[in-house]
Amino acid sequence: MSTRTKRGPDAGGEIGDSELLDLYRNVSRIRALELLLNRYIEEHGFGGFWHPGLGQEGIQAGAVSALRSDDYLFYAHRGLGYALAKGMSPVTLLADLFGRTPGSVGGKGGGTVHFVDPEIGVMGQGGTVGSSFVLGAGVGISAQMLGTDKVVAIFFGDGSSARGTFHEAALTASVWKLPLVWICENNGWAISVPIAEQSPTENIADRAAAYGVPGVIVDGQDTLAVRAATEEAVARARAGEGPTLIEAKTLRVRGHFEGDKQAYREDLVDGLDVPRDPLKILRERVPAETADRIDEEARAEADAALEEVLAMPTGGEDVVTQGVWV
Amino acid sequence: MSTRTKRGPDAGGEIGDSELLDLYRNVSRIRALELLLNRYIEEHGFGGFWHPGLGQEGIQAGAVSALRSDDYLFYAHRGLGYALAKGMSPVTLLADLFGRTPGSVGGKGGGTVHFVDPEIGVMGQGGTVGSSFVLGAGVGISAQMLGTDKVVAIFFGDGSSARGTFHEAALTASVWKLPLVWICENNGWAISVPIAEQSPTENIADRAAAYGVPGVIVDGQDTLAVRAATEEAVARARAGEGPTLIEAKTLRVRGHFEGDKQAYREDLVDGLDVPRDPLKILRERVPAETADRIDEEARAEADAALEEVLAMPTGGEDVVTQGVWV
Amino acid sequence: MSVGTETETPTLGYARAINQALAEEMRREERVWMLGQDVGKMGGVFGVTRGLYDEFGAGRVRDTSLNETFIVGAAVGAAMAGTIPVAELQFADFMMIAGDEVFHKMAKWRYMHGGKLSVPMVLRLPTGVLGGVGAEHSQSLEALGMHFPGLKVVLPATPADAKGLLKTAIRDSNPVLFFEHKGMYRVKGPVPTDPEFLVPFGEAAVRRGGQHLTVVATGLMVPRALEAAAALAADGIELEVIDPRTLVPLDMETIVASVERTGRALVVQEAVRTAGAGAEIAARIQEAAFFALDAPVWRLGALDTPVPQSPVLEQLVIPSTDQITAAARELVKL
Amino acid sequence: MSVGTETETPTLGYARAINQALAEEMRREERVWMLGQDVGKMGGVFGVTRGLYDEFGAGRVRDTSLNETFIVGAAVGAAMAGTIPVAELQFADFMMIAGDEVFHKMAKWRYMHGGKLSVPMVLRLPTGVLGGVGAEHSQSLEALGMHFPGLKVVLPATPADAKGLLKTAIRDSNPVLFFEHKGMYRVKGPVPTDPEFLVPFGEAAVRRGGQHLTVVATGLMVPRALEAAAALAADGIELEVIDPRTLVPLDMETIVASVERTGRALVVQEAVRTAGAGAEIAARIQEAAFFALDAPVWRLGALDTPVPQSPVLEQLVIPSTDQITAAARELVKL
Ligand SMILES: Cc1ncc(C[n+]2csc(CCOP(=O)(O)OP(=O)(O)O)c2C)c(N)n1
Ligand SMILES: Cc1ncc(C[n+]2csc(CCOP(=O)(O)OP(=O)(O)O)c2C)c(N)n1
Ligand SMILES: [Mg+2]
Ligand SMILES: [Mg+2]
Questions:
Q1: Is A188 helix (H, G, I), strand (E, B) or coil?
Q2: What is the rounded CA–CA span in Å between residue B270 and residue D29?
Q3: In this structure, which residue's CA is closest to atom 8 in ligand 1?
Q4: In 3D, which of C97, C253, C243, C95 has the Cα closest to residue C175?
Q5: What is the Rg, in whole angstroms, of the alpha carbon atoms belonging to chain A?
Q6: C6-23 pLDDT per residue, tens
Q7: Which candidate from C65, C305, C313 shows the least CB-CB separation from B162?
Q8: Which fold has domain C11-190?
Q9: Is residue A181 part of a domain?
């Protein structure tokens, strides 16, 4: 199995017009939430951690767009984009981020924000990054045993790829041909540690060969390329041919968490500027007026969601002990 | 970094006559202990686990012969050969195996037998296989920080290579260029699980590329070939160029532990016959009379050691609480 | 048991009882399956799962690689997605290798996700001293299960309980740590054959009645406490021996009611004494029954050392029948 | 503290006190070094190690990858081979990811090898609730350190203790778990500048004298217990507040002597109440001082739930000052 590289806007596969608009809409919706949260936290501060995903929206929306609505998703900690693209509402997601009772986890999940929606395969998140490798493999086993053809998408960062859980899961997932798609958002950093200090190889996908699975490198700023690579991997997984390791090259625009001073960083990005902005790149495929309208709707949706959420209650003693045991 | 294969008796590097005899002597001494323990356990049973290394003596003696006496050793659980070759006495090793107080660990180490001799770099063993990957890396850090040029040899089995600790240690050891030599004894089995069910790739060494280190495959029945491959890896580590992954192909002659019925196994080896016996292969390089004499001395040494050890005391309440804290 | 005819409660070994529970539950419910190192063709390093691979096949009895985080983590994931895995670690100690999976994911995933997911699985954990297997293969780590809310913790001390509690565990919708004592695998006892034989969680068993001292013991300490009780009965000292069977949930009612009668309590565990389950039980006894107590609650447990490898030294570390006898004799006189 | 002149005990934050201890010990002894995620250039996710990378360089202040088994395991290995590592996990909870390394290798390697090797290292563990960081970033897991013999367990509750205990830990030849409360990083207090200022292990601090009730509290519960004591003093109820500071070794003498005077004890911990350190302390108090006790030993600890993420819910789970006050008020009347 060798590592292939897909780059550039033309690497994207076929996509219908309405699917393209859906995709653009999701990138735009994620972006709107990112910018909104950035503004909110600047003005009000925040209890807990917010790991901004600004600039990585194209990976999240692009990859998820290749999944079926009943496929499973293990998202990473960088933003709300994964789950939004999978179909969760911004109101629920923000409610979870702000620890409100009407959120999907009722104020109980987190560290980094957790959310869940088993109906559409959103299976939650651990506070320890990289724990999804083994959990996701297990979901894949159930999917197989129950005779479904569901696929499990597992997002993670370059830093998280160093976890031993990746190795332990990947060896067996490959031998058992589990229906997994690993999507690494390589943004070049694990908090303050640059990729060159974390990885002896240039690419995370270079590790695929060790596990006998295809390794695919894709331009993470190019939403359609990510989508195309994921489609191929999903098809492979669904056909019972086992996992694929996709590495989407991107960069971390903001700090690790909002508030991170990034004194350790020399290649600081200026403010909210997104180099090779995935939204702009995808926009080229969409009529300008349509894109403007979608952007406007996305902003309105985000603003309304936040307003709704900030009025929601945080629970009290009645909820705090619920849900420990069945 | 690509994986290279070295096979056959001529793959061995240069070796002087007296070194050759030393090497033969160690293979023979390990073999004598193996056969002695086999006989003893058949006749008397055994409390605890004995994992016979019959047939793997050439890897253990060959690789260790490439180390300096002050280099570090993390041995695996399969036999006493590693530590014997490093310079520990058979009396001490058997005393540890039988849990006697005069052994190096005084009856306290084990599960699989532990032994230790910091003077000659024998750093002990954990009961959880594969734990030596991270510990050994740490020893390598100290060796570097203290300005020595000592190297750390870490033995492990094909099964143990699946531990997440390998992945976690290997990534950083490679980036930090730690002075490590990983020696995988691939005997085709992790207890009852054959290599094909454990590993998606044919060779364990195929994983080296993922860590940006050389991967070397060597015939584990050919003691000189193992020695030569290890010499090269040790030189590399000592020169500050980082770790090497050596995979020595061998086979498990006996059960996982002595007493294992091996009902799961189709390629059963008959009794104590060693296919492609490393002792016989190495013997071809040694004058027959010399070899006979060495074998005889080895048997005598083993017999005497066991007799001495069986007369040794197991400790009591005086020793049991000692050594928990300094 | 009459030879040749199947009675209601034939005599069976503790390991075979576990095997029977697994077989029965896998027959009853297709979604139940197993994974672990060597659980398949080999039937487990202790032979506990023998025959199951042949009956249920490689799809439902899965041999894994040497990857404890995978074994537990995959079980958690599978449980969330509709099947009921029974995972085995070869030694309970190896929980510490998969600590994030056991104590965080398995225990907390449900709570962290607002109760929207559940994790119906069992983790089988061969526990305790076996004779010569050393510090990382001999520990009794059940106390950890009590300190991480979300788990249930089971510790059978007889073959019947091994079977009945395991069947209950498999049918429970919560994640269960099932500590089976590997030193007791060959202990024999009557085991009901009724496929609906279930031992409920949270109901202690009074193994012997007595009025002078309540002894709370778990696992291997149950037979030792019963031996001590037999020895002391000769001197007219009557111990009441209570086996909680499950530590989460813990049947304090039975224990407290007993202590209120006897006025004295001794808690015995194989685990390291410091910060073990016995500390919790002792603390709760005196909280609930302080004014009924005539003497402090005493505890016996392993010395504050790792378990040494030598089978001789090992027995010096954990409580012996003689030590239980001596402690009980002293405590009733206080 | 007079501005501009360096006094013997200037006021310093808890995090800065830790930083000072690290800097002083690294200056004193070349073999001391650090490793952990982001401890280098960034100075740690909580800023605790700021400046050390600049002073000591990349060789002695090492940023690792996201690999907890490596961080702890490599520290153990390095310690066996002649250096003195101070490893940091970003959250104490992550010990469970490196459970084999912490609770087996770090704790037992010496014993398992007959005392022939030693493991002089410190594992720094930001512990406790911080406000909104959830179930796997907020736990108080010190009880585990007590249950695995071979470790020492430290839990400073003041900036001075944070500094003095860390310096002692680094000089100790045993492996030490150093639980620093991340919710207290900004708490300020007097901190001696004498580079030989060391706080010994195994000596509890009596934070406040009193004759009606002994309160044993650790970490964040120390200031809460002191607040409760202040509130109750107004009503003439005088609490004696004892902070053990180290759980291994544990200064039971001071605690028992106090209980023998007051006749009553309340143990308060932030950790989950069940099977926590408080259970051990309560069990020992009644073992040692039963006949001096006028009432049962009570415990306060976190509810039997994971720590919920919401900062509001989180505070409902761990003991509050009001709960301590109420429990103490009730207990003195029993
Ligand atoms: C097991 C574990 N170790 C450390 C952390 C703290 N942590 C959270 S995110 C992170 C860096 C992750 O880097 P990467 O995977 O590249 O994702 P990115 O933040 O760059 O999106 C770290 C170290 C954690 N949550 N879990
Ligand atoms: C972490 C851990 N898991 C499981 C075991 C039980 N165990 C001991 S040896 C072994 C198989 C090891 O296989 P391999 O590494 O190939 O070595 P071999 O026995 O073939 O020499 C297993 C599963 C253990 N000791 N430690
Ligand atoms: Mg990253
Ligand atoms: Mg093997």
A1: coil
A2: 59
A3: A129
A4: C95
A5: 19
A6: 446 789 999 999 999 999
A7: C65
A8: Rossmann fold (3.40.50)
A9: yes
